């Protein structure tokens, strides 16, 4: 520990030197200003915005009619500033003493504990005295595990991640097959999608089917919104968003009302094309009328989102954080977060948006791909300066100002787990369609790139999740006027090689087997890793490698987050009734069977009403998913139907409780049928999840059952076809 402390002291001294050169006037990061931010600023915004009481629901008009009364985020149009929890602890930071700064630094140390040279920044940043973020040769002296067959990796489809992948394979002493091979490999590394190679029947692939689709901006917004409807407070880390073109009217009306209620309000919105990336096609607006139309008056498919106006600044620059997250498996759900990430900086000093600066991309957008073209972009070999830095160097920097970075880090972990939980239901539907239960197929894992913005009050905000985060370890640089070349980027190498290598280590088939049999599920990541280094042979190799830079966060924190896995239980019911292998849409018969088997129809809800419900919702969702090739009810539509049925059964309690009650009814009925063999459930690789065992969720709903008020809830064909 004291060793670490020494390193941090050196780190801090270096940073101070850089700081004094760079910014005498770094107002935002002085402890006083960080501390004084949240309370006042967000209170004002909260007061202002909450004056307008606008229905916050926006999935669809007809749905509002059918069941809308419960699905509001406090019944108001809530913007990020509105949702931001106050952080009294920061307000105490004014005039923070050196002692408490040191406390924070110790916290930083603990956070980064276990980082070792080749993956951690600690030693490498120490070497910045030489101005370099070097790589370390610890692996070179490693003893090779002799008896064990080397793990085989097919790298033929790796594309731009190839360089980092090769390095990782070399470090692990595994065997690379750069042009693939006839016999099966243990691991297949794809550059883009699960389908890069269609002929895999065993082993492990580094992409999940459907991940790209799920992480398009509209689908991500929808998945998070479903969770916001169930758990508004838990999911307030995602800025308020509207889906275009279908919610254009709603967006216009809500903003008009907001402004009518308070003429001093000047909200800004960011428009992001659905399938865009790297900042492509993104622009800021201050009024719905400024939305750009393409092809006549048609508004392009996009998400328009509340723009976070008060980001945390360093050196007066806006920056975001790219964190790498490994979803190691869906069933059981296993999530790891890389302890190290990247911070990408803007290249023009930040000012709050005004009509004048709205188009200044170098001020508002942190994308590397954009800022690299600015004359102000600083390529640096150091991890803690320049336009791309390690995230830990940013944490050190803010820790030195007295910020409670442990809190920042734990908020980020929570954001990541909650986001993955929002994605899992749909991913399971894709999974069973592509790898039907009982058919040979690979298992999947995937590294995701989370883009996170820290608000001035240090609350992390999710910007987007990338299915294919760049794993390039070189960057384009103008080596002489007009001549560009790819040159090694030490910061990228530092972070990305560690992430890939540790992902491979976690996916080592031998260790996975051991992990599966030995992990009795107490949920400790340390245990999981200890299991993985269990054998002598492995130990010798593991000894020579740095400790994992990937930290398991789920199931480690199962207890805190398992109650959020409600949509996943609905998805399990959906999958059960899909019927035909390889499909993702529920047909009318499947829907009827679901209603019948769960005993949901009765004299006041006839099978004819069931059919109307099915047609209404399915038709409307078909309109919202124009590209879809399959007919039938998609999972999101089924969830909407489920919410409707839940509201119909138990009126006027919060939606979450209505849904939990209905889930109990359905799961109870289906379980009974499975036991009595009256209906044979088709074999499923993705069962209604052990992790989401019914009793995890049942008690709160049951204890409040007697509070339920009964209110009639109508769904008419008319209401649903209005859209
Ligand atoms: P892309 O996939 O095109 O990179 P992002 O959603 O990541 O799209 O947005 C690009 C950049 O815009 C982000 O890196 C961030 O700097 C900025 N940004 C995105 N959303 C917001 C927001 N809601 N508030 C403030 N800045 C944002």
UniProtKB/TrEMBL annotation:
The answer, when asked if Transmembrane helix is one of the entry's keywords, is: no
Recorded superkingdom: Eukaryota
Residue ranges, annotated region (Disordered): 19-144, 673-703
Which keywords fit this entry according to its UniProt record? ATP-binding, Ligase, Nucleotide-binding
Is the Cytoplasm keyword given for this protein?
Answer: no
Q: Name one GO biological process term.
A: microtubule cytoskeleton organization
The terms describing its cellular component in GO are:
ciliary basal body
Question: Pfam families per the record?
Answer: TTL (PF03133)
List, in alphabetical order, the Gene Ontology terms for molecular function in this entry. ATP binding; tubulin binding; tubulin-glutamic acid ligase activity
Record Gene3D superfamilies: ATP-grasp fold, B domain
Q: Where is the composition biased (Basic and acidic residues)?
A: 64-73, 129-143
Output compositional bias ranges, type Low complexity.
30-44, 106-116
Compositional bias per record (Polar residues), positions renumbered to this chain: 686-701
Q: Enumerate the PANTHER family for this protein.
A: TUBULIN POLYGLUTAMYLASE (PTHR12241), TUBULIN POLYGLUTAMYLASE TTLL11 (PTHR12241:SF154)
- Per its record, how is this protein called by name? Tubulin tyrosine ligase-like family, member 11
Provide the species name.
Phoxinus phoxinus
